[in-house]
Amino acid sequence: RELFTVFALFLVIVIAVIMQKIGLSPALGTFLAGVVLAESEFRHELEVDIEPFKGLLLGLFFITVGASIDFPLLFEELGLVTLLVLSLIVIKAAVLFFLGTLFKMAKKQKLLFTLALAQGGEFAFVLLSLTSTLHILTPEQNKITTLVVAISMLMAPVLLIFYEKVLDKEQEDASEFDKPEDIEATKSVIIAGYGRFGQIIGRLLSSQGYHLSILDHSPSQIELLKRFGNKVFYGDAARGDLLAASGAKEAQLLVIAIDDADKIIEIAQLAQKHYPNLQIVARAIDRHHAYELMRIGVKTLRRETFESALSLGVSALELLGNSPESAKRAGKLFFEHDKESMHVLSEVWGDDHSYGVAVKQRMELLKQVLVSDEEEQDKIQTCQKSPEA
After folding, report:
1. What is the pTM of this model?
2. Which member of 46, 136, 244, 285 lies 3.0 to 4.6 Å from 131 by CB, making a disulfide possible if both were Cys?
3. How far apart are CA 139 and CA 234, in angstroms?
4. Report for 16-20, 287-291, 377-381: range of highest mean pLDDT
5. CB atoms < 10 A from the CB of 45, how many?
6. How far apart are CA 126 and CA 35, in angstroms?
7. What mean pLDDT do residues 59-82 have?
8. Least confident segment among 37-51, 84-98, 99-113, 283-297
9. Residue 192, Cβ neighbours under 10 Å: how many?
């Protein structure tokens, strides 16, 4: 994890140095590196990795912006700067309002969209640095433009307060308030682990119209999934921040399909703690692992090899001379008995003596069930062969 973050930072620094060497702004280089990383399949992992530093870096950014303001120039050209700030906000707001109308946004959303983005953006400082390097603007023009962008950004909280206190309140009190449309609940499912086990589950759910969010730590698997348009997250599903980023709060179901027994337990406990309403379906590596999952409250689980082995066992019975009906019936009885045994044995698992006794009792009971069923089927066949009275 640390190596991954270090490599991302190294990439940003290298691109910044290259930009400086060719005579361009290092800020432009870091911006381009950020765009590249933001469009990669690893963006979610990077996002959660830099989360602890986000507040610090944001603070440093605004300190830098504040330090770049030339206050003597501001007071000297106050009228011009004020006019330019208002012009920037009004023109940008008009463009945003037009776009909101063009894309048929709801009135309330359109107003918020317009006012939230009406100020100058951070990218303006990158462009200003570039114009300074290329001597496109004079030093004084560059300083005035920096003032305009910085002050417009300071106006952002004022615009949002105006929206919240005035416009939003008017929208709520209006007699012709737009009623929200009935929106069908999103059929969202998170699959942690998309290897040979998770793929089958994912293909079935996807074919039924469910929206999948896939978490996997294999770069090659992530790259393959992206080709088919899947929503994928690179990283460890046992990390709460990554699980949250994948939409655990809104999802209907979490499928834990990774091949690490300890991680499965860890993810299940994490989901139960932070998302109690999220249903969990888990892959059990073996019988003992299934007991552990049942102990922590996972109600729906499947052992990864049980049903395929049972199906092969039914085929073996057929090859040994049993009729297909008899073999399938034996398989069904075995399945039902094993399902019941799982619940019985999970209660004594951990106590070697009690567990051993219970296993022997369940095995004996299985033999009795199969023998009893065989005798019952023989009686039925005898009755069918006897002449009608």
Report:
1. 0.54
2. 136
3. 45
4. 287-291
5. 25
6. 13
7. 81
8. 37-51
9. 29
On whether the CB atoms of residues 85 and 148 are closer than 8 A, the answer is yes
Given a cut of 60, whether residue 214 has pLDDT beyond it is: yes
Q: What's the pLDDT tens digit per position in 301-312?
A: 999 888 899 999
Rounded to the nearest integer, the mean pLDDT of the chain is 80
CA distance 145 to 127: 11
Q: Cα angle at 227 between 234 and 241, to 5 degrees?
A: 20
Overall residue count recorded for the chain in this entry: 389
* Dihedral sign, Cα of residue 245, residue 248, residue 249, residue 250: positive
What phi and psi values does residue 243 have, to the nearest 5 degrees? -65, -40
Q: Which two tokens stand for residue 239?
A: 């990390």
Tokens of 261: 């027994």
What burial letters (b/e) apply to 261-273, b meaning 16+ CB within 10 Å? bebbbbbbebbee
Which residue ranges form the domains of the chain, and what is each CATH number? Answer: 50-173 (no CATH), 184-304 (3.40.50.720), 306-378 (no CATH)
User: Is 284's pLDDT higher than 90?
Assistant: yes
Give CB contacts under 8 A, 24+ apart, made by 151-157: 151/81, 151/85, 152/85, 152/88, 152/89, 152/118, 152/119, 152/120, 153/65, 153/119, 153/120, 155/85, 155/89, 155/119, 156/116, 156/118, 156/119
**pLDDT for res 90:** 92
